[in-house]
Write a structure and sequence with these properties.
The protein has 253 residues and is of the alpha/beta class. The protein has 2 domains: 173 residues, Peptidoglycan recognition protein-like (Lysozyme-like, 3-Layer(aba) Sandwich); 53 residues, no CATH class. The strands form 4 sheets. The chain has a 6-stranded mixed sheet, covered by helices on one side. Strands 7-10-11 form a 3-stranded antiparallel sheet, with no helix packed on it. It has a two-stranded antiparallel sheet with strand order 8-9. A hairpin with a 2-residue loop joins strand 10 and strand 11. The longest helix is centred in the middle third of the chain and has 18 residues. The chain is elongated.
């Protein structure tokens, strides 16, 4: 995919594993994928195959608006079951293998992949194993569908809800940072020490840049010299002093 390093598909159990019922109606296609939304299920702790089937039954019988199938596209197991085969296919895909329109974020389901973690993450925390599984799944989905990392959301970002629970939601910023490193192949150098006076180090394609003026943090955002960064990436930078406009242009091949 453009801009992302290739990511391997993690092991995913298919619907037959948990004895999925057929959808009650034909499912339309998801459409072009633009987002992933993370949920927790707040379901009763059981054998995962039984628990996922119970979620499907609840979804297709819920009143006043039952779903046609389980609403989520993928479900991640509870902490005690993490063993390298921890992801379950949820909603039935299209006959060509493409994803079907989900039912997990009211008013925002088109193009939106639903990923749910079994459990209640207002009450419990994600285990390191679950965090790793979630990161691997999101990395693969982002690569496969070219999803911008900032479009990996928690349910509460889109609806008024506590989902996906505080313990998952609070981990999403760090998870996105991990995905940036993973998807762009950024190599973190543990030997780097903080720079003096609160300056920020700039590393481009794993090579440290010595900018003409220091980069720094202001109001929680990184401020860096545009010309130095753009030219290090092979761009042409031009400042028009008549309109006070900076132009950044890729050179013609």
């Amino acid at each position: 995919m453009p801009g992302y390093f290739p990511q391997s598909q993690p092991f995913i159990w298919d619907r037959r594993t948990w004895g999925a019922m057929e959808p009650t109606t034909n499912l339309p296609p998801l459409g072009p994928v633009t987002r992933v939304t993370v949920h927790h299920t707040v379901s009763t702790r059981k054998d995962p195959l039984v628990e996922i089937k119970d979620i499907q039954l609840y979804h297709i019988t819920k009143e006043p608006e039952p779903f046609s199938d389980i609403g989520y596209h993928y479900v991640i197991d509870r902490a005690e079951n993490i063993d390298g085969r921890d992801i379950y296919q949820g909603r039935k895909p299209q006959s060509d293998g493409g994803l079907s329109l989900g039912a997990h974020v009211a008013g925002h389901n088109t193009g939106n992949i639903g990923v749910a973690v079994l459990g209640n993450y207002d009450q419990e925390d994600l285990s390191p194993g679950q965090q790793q599984v979630l990161e691997e799944l999101l990395a693969w989905l982002s690569y496969k569908y070219d999803i911008p990392i900032h479009q990996i959301k928690g349910h509460r970002d889109l609806n008024v809800t506590d989902c996906p629970g505080d313990h998952i939601y609070d981990r999403l910023p760090a998870l996105r940072e991990n995905l940036v490193r993973r998807l762009y192949g950024i190599q973190v150098n543990p030997a780097y020490a903080p720079l003096p006076n609160g300056e920020v180090r700039i590393v481009i394609n794993n090579k440290e840049l010595k900018p003409s003026v220091p980069a720094f943090i202001k109001d929680g955002k990184t401020v860096a010299p545009l010309r130095d960064v753009a030219e290090a990436l092979g761009q042409v930078v031009y400042f028009d002093d008549r309109s006070w406009t900076v132009y950044v242009q890729s050179p013609k091949g």
